[in-house]
């Protein structure tokens, strides 16, 4: 700081066009009124509009981030349309989440957050470590009953074996 503020009027950064310096600017904290391609007006800090280190400059009023998030959700939906929602793995995942959400003894032990948030991450773990669902008559089991659904704490177990284990503990 201390240097005279660079005039950014007219610059384009992503979807933003800098219109003029905002009246709320204070020395060292120059703010700029920008017009986004979506039509929204937005005030941004000068620093946020410039490249700095590993930080990427702000590129929109916020509509770009929302679009990316929306696209991600629809990609998930597409993947499910291709049959994953009917799979045994997906059913297992739904049941795990339901237990964690509704049954206190599961809620307190928890579930690995990325698994909870995204079926594909859980599915990838299965494929890479304990394998796909072995078929009807098998269930997901927590190796250490005192812990929740976390990496290294799940395995496939036959429903019978699981029942016997539950009775003992
Ligand atoms: Zn926008």
Labels describing this entry:
169 residues; alpha+beta; 2 domains; four-stranded antiparallel beta sheet; two-stranded antiparallel sheet; 7 helices; binds zinc ion
Order of helices and strands: EEEEHHHHHHEEH
Q: Residue ranges: pLDDT <50 for 5 or more in a row? A: none
Number of helices in the DSSP assignment:
7
Q: Please give the number of β-strands.
A: 6
- Domains (count): 2
Order of the strands making up the biggest sheet: 1-2-3-4
Report the radius of gyration as a whole number of Å.
25 Å
Per DSSP, what share of the residues sits in E-state strands of 2 or more residues?
15-25%
Mean pLDDT comes to 85
The biggest beta sheet reads: 4 strands, antiparallel
In short:
The chain is α+β, with helices and mostly antiparallel strands.
Q: What do you see in this structure?
A:
By secondary structure, this protein is of the alpha+beta class. Helix content is 40%, strand content 17%. It folds into 2 domains: 12-75, no CATH class; 88-168, no CATH class. The mean pLDDT is 85.
Give the topology.
Layout: E1 12-13, E2 16-21, E3 31-36, E4 41-45, H1 46-49, H2 63-81, H3 88-102, H4 104-107, H5 113-117, H6 119-128, E5 138-142, E6 154-158, H7 159-168
Antiparallel strand pairs: 1-2, 2-3, 3-4, 5-6
The site of zinc ion has 7 residues, from loops.
